[in-house]
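quick one before i forget lol
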Amino acid sequence: MKSSSHFPERRKKTHYFAQVVRDTGVLINVERAMIDSSEGEALIDIPDESCAMIKERLADLGAAVRVLDEVITLDESLCVDCGACISICPQSLFIRYGLEDQDG
């Protein structure tokens, strides 16, 4: 299951995912992360059966977790071919299914 995690300003050096993996034994796949000195955001993939436990443990460490249970779909009737979706898709979904720019 995909989840979005937001980490507040770090008052001490905390390795959120390493701590959670150590404490729970559940492997977490970090698909995308943007973390700087003030805060962080990460897209993670965790086993469905461990979702509640991982969410609770991350919350204990001060992270806000949102489960992404809605599937992202491409509505071709609204698409203007701006390419923004290609740059943020962690799974390269649009390239995999042949939606990449055919000219280049």
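fyi Residues 51-60 form the longest helix (10 residues).
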